[in-house]
Amino acid sequence: MNKKIYEFRAEKAEIIQKMKVISESEKPDMALFRNYELEANNIDREILKSEQREESNKSIIANMNGELANQNNNKEGISLRTFIQDTINSGHSAKKVLSFRADPIASTTDAGIINKTIAGVDTLMTPGEVFLKNLGVTFYLNQNGKLKLPYVAESTANFCTEGTGDASTADLDPTSIELEARRISHSQKFTVEMLSQSDPKIFTSLVKNLENGIWKKVGQDIFDQIETDAASYITGQTGTDLEYTDICNQEASLGGYDLLKPAYVTTPDVRNYLKNKQRFTTTDSPVWNNDIVNGYNAYAFSGANDNTVYFGDYSKAVVASWGKTINMIVDPFTEAKKGNVIITLISLFDTGVTNPAAFTWLDDVSAGV
């Protein structure tokens, strides 16, 4: 997104704040309110034009690269099916398939019964991973051992008088959070008939769905951690019928924190409610408008906790992974009598929050949804 769109949105946020002040006054100046409303609508149109130009540029690039992308995806699908078939036929690692790096995993108690072959899944980013990266979450990949991160709030320095002034005392009492490998897995059965007869792209799409399920679980865990770690910093609001003032109060509750990449996040159900909820008495000012809420980017994520609206600086949320981000195990033996091949994706992740003061949330909004 270019800078101009950000400028438009910042200008619109200022206008909305002025409209809010007018609407809450004892004798609102409706003529001035309508003027501000007209300005906000004009800015919306400018934002839409800028976004359309940006999408047009993206479409041109996508068309130029579309054929190459399709070729790559087809090769990926063929490689996946070939890898699975070769594993079934030989019972050993499919070393000749270049798209998959096959290595034996550590032996287990059933290693002599079930042949487990592991390979790094080389796919495009799934929706769950794209969501987390767009949100600005901090990633620490390929860790080895436990990961300790500082767990502190913000502080401010001061200017010192020459020769005499002392530095300001932060008094942050820093502690640390410790992340460690936690296993997430997702499994799918293939029949040998399906493996032999279906288009290779089907196998790739199924693996991508499994992978997205893992990233969705990582996202769910982030919001669980926000509610756990930031427990002493929530606003204390509980909405029986969510209002725009509740949304604004979430921002106000973090007024002492410099937000790097703030955003609102909620579920698709609450998003739908906010699209139909008006900010003021007018009928054309929804709370959720073009994925903007209160002047900030807004996201709907099915992995967020139900009936909850989150706001904060997501660069202070952390995702760590160990080893290959996601690994694939092919098991052609456990259900060989039934003609089934079991594919399991396994990954090692953990999440955490490095500054609990960077987040707030509003819960129990079910009455408004």
Task: Throw out a few tags for this protein.
single chain, 369 residues, 5-stranded mixed sheet, globular
Which H/E pattern describes the elements? Answer: HHEEHEEEEHHHEHEEEEEEE
The CATH architecture of the domain at 99-143 and 177-368 would be Alpha-Beta Complex
Stretches where pLDDT is under 50 for at least 5 consecutive residues are 91-123, 231-236
Count of alpha/pi helices: 7
SSE class: alpha+beta
Looking at the structure, the CATH topology of the domain at 99-143 and 177-368 is phage-related protein like fold
Q: Name the CATH class of the domain at 99-143 and 177-368.
A: Alpha Beta
Tell me the radius of gyration: 26 Å
How would you describe the overall organization of this protein?
Helix content is 40%, strand content 21%. By secondary structure, it is an alpha+beta fold. The chain has a domain at 99-143 and 177-368: phage-related protein like fold (Alpha-Beta Complex), CATH 3.90.1690. The longest helix is centred in the first third of the chain and has 61 residues, at 30-90. 28% of the residues are buried. The model is unreliable at 91-123 and 231-236 (pLDDT under 50).
